[in-house]
Amino acid sequence: MRSELMLDLRPLFYEVLVEAEVVSGSNPLKVMSKVGNKFGLMSRLVEMSGVRLDLFGVRLCESGRGPDGVEWLDVEVNPFVSRAGKAYYVSIVFRRPSGEDVLMFARRVLTFINSLISGIESYSQK
User: Model pTM greater than 0.90?
Assistant: First the structure.
């Protein structure tokens, strides 16, 4: 019976998980606060809660995809808690059905992270 079973076992997806601490010349707490002040939502939340609030970080996902799918990108950028005035904590989940796509992303992940932080910091200055 066992020799008759022909199983076609393949991975459903491949995934890379990245966590990084990125030291910055900017103050991540101040950067996030400035970014948050650009959204009307923050002043509205302060008004509704009665508590002075600031944006502490951002979490992004790939448009049109859900976390339960075989293609997913989840990116979190926050001030690093123990060094919030000097460094960012970055967490990334990248998932694809193709292992080669995941390897290509992993090879360029530092560039990806630097681009995100540069984009956030430059947006805070506008």
Answer: no
Q: Give the separation between CA 85 and CA 42, rounded to whole angstroms.
A: 21
24: Cα within 13 Å, side-chain hemisphere? 32
Helix (H) or strand (E) holding 75: strand 72-79
pLDDT of residue 2: 54
Centre a 10 Å sphere on the Cβ of residue 87 and count the other Cβ atoms it contains. Answer: 17
Torsion angle, CA of 50/55/61/66, rounded to 10 degrees? -20
User: What is the pairing mode between strands 87-96 and 72-79?
Assistant: antiparallel
Please count the structural domains in the chain: 1
Task: Please give the structure tokens belonging to residue 42.
Answer: 């923050």
Tokens read off for 28: 């991540």
Whether residue 105 is contained in a domain is answered as yes
Rounded Cα distance between 67 and 49, Å, is: 30
Q: What is the CATH number of the domain that holds 56?
A: 3.30.530
Picking from 105, 123, 102, the residue whose alpha carbon sits closest to that of residue 113 is 105
Q: Which domain holds residue 92?
A: 12-125
Q: How do residues 37-62 score in pLDDT, each as one tens digit?
A: 888 888 888 888 889 889 999 999 99
